[in-house]
């Protein structure tokens, strides 16, 4: 068994290592190609409604949303903490002939590493749950608002932890792919959630060894998130249950999707 040995590691390095190891299998696990058909109509609506010409994709992974937005005519800067995830994105860019700038950075370093402002900032794929303290989440949101034009939009998707903490499922999902079976599971040791991905290779795969890796997550609850957005310089906050803008139901929605606007620089709250 190829097991990631990061027990007790809670910092950015653990997240970087987790996704560096996951990168070669990430597209298979997330059904990369099929998602374009599913999500394109909703992002086209966002781009048109808010006249998005430029965007930052924070926590871009292998670049699904960066590619989707670029195809919709948006100038995209893609940021991730994992160099191997960005390497997978670079392969996609080369194969598709797209122009997407990539930057390896932690969220709090974004204002120093990328040049804004942007019309929109997207943070998808449950990325914010990797910030393990309220202070880290506040600092990330404060960095985000600095990079937006006044009135620019923030669009965030995390899992619905209001539901997850109520029901405490052990298995999040099981997905069968050509590369093997991916089982995502949870443990609840305290204030954080231990997230594990177990990959059992397909019978015809090169390797017959099961691979297991884990990382800690901090549940992003809807009330805290909305409050932090107000503290860090966002207003006009709306919550949804999916990228399709369905109504958010704390007890049943799979996701928590938040749409907010950055307010004018003069009105932003100083974050200590």
Structural overview:
The structure is a single chain. This protein folds into two domains: 12-160 and 219-262, Rossmann fold (3-Layer(aba) Sandwich); 165-217. It has a seven-stranded mixed β-sheet, sandwiched between helices. A five-stranded mixed β-sheet has the order 1-10-9-8-7, covered by helices on one side. It has helices spanning 12-29, 32-49, 64-71, 83-96, 110-113, 134-146, 161-167, 222-231, and strands at 2-3, 54-58, 75-80, 101-104, 118-123, 148-159, 171-176, 180-187, 193-201, 211-217, 234-240, 255-262. With 272 residues, the protein is an alpha/beta fold.
Itemize the secondary structure elements and their pairings.
Layout: E1 2-3, H1 12-29, H2 32-49, E2 54-58, H3 64-71, E3 75-80, H4 83-96, E4 101-104, H5 110-113, E5 118-123, H6 134-146, E6 148-159, H7 161-167, E7 171-176, E8 180-187, E9 193-201, E10 211-217, H8 222-231, E11 234-240, E12 255-262
Parallel strand pairs: 1-10, 2-3, 2-5, 3-4, 5-6
Antiparallel strand pairs: 6-12, 7-8, 8-9, 9-10, 11-12
Helix pairs in contact: 1-4
């Amino acid at each position: 068994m190829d097991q990631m040995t990061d027990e007790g590691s809670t910092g950015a390095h653990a997240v970087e290592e987790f996704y560096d190891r996951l990168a070669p299998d990430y597209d298979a696990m997330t059904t990369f190609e099929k998602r374009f058909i599913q999500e394109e109509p909703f992002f086209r609506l966002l781009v048109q409604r808010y006249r998005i010409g430029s965007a930052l994709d924070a926590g871009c992974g292998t670049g699904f949303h960066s590619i989707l937005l670029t195809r919709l005519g948006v100038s995209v800067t893609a940021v991730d903490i994992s160099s191997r995830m960005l390497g997978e994105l670079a392969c996609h860019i080369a194969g598709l002939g797209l122009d997407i700038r990539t930057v390896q950075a932690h969220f709090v370093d974004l204002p120093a590493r990328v040049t804004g402002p942007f019309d929109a900032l997207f943070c998808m794929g449950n990325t914010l749950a990797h910030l393990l303290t309220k202070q880290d989440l506040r600092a990330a949101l404060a960095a985000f608002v600095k990079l937006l034009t006044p009135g620019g939009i923030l669009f965030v998707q995390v899992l619905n932890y209001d539901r997850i903490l109520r029901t405490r499922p052990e298995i999040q999902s099981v997905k069968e792919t050509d590369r093997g079976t991916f089982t995502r599971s949870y443990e609840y040791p305290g204030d954080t959630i231990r997230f594990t991905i177990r990959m059992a290779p397909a019978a015809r795969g090169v390797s017959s060894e099961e691979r297991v890796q884990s990382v800690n997550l901090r549940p992003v609850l809807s009330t805290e998130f909305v409050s932090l957005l107000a503290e860090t310089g966002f207003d006009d906050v709306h919550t949804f249950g999916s990228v399709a803008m369905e109504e958010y139901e704390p007890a049943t929605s799979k996701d928590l999707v938040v749409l907010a606007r950055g307010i004018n620089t003069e009105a932003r709250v100083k974050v200590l």
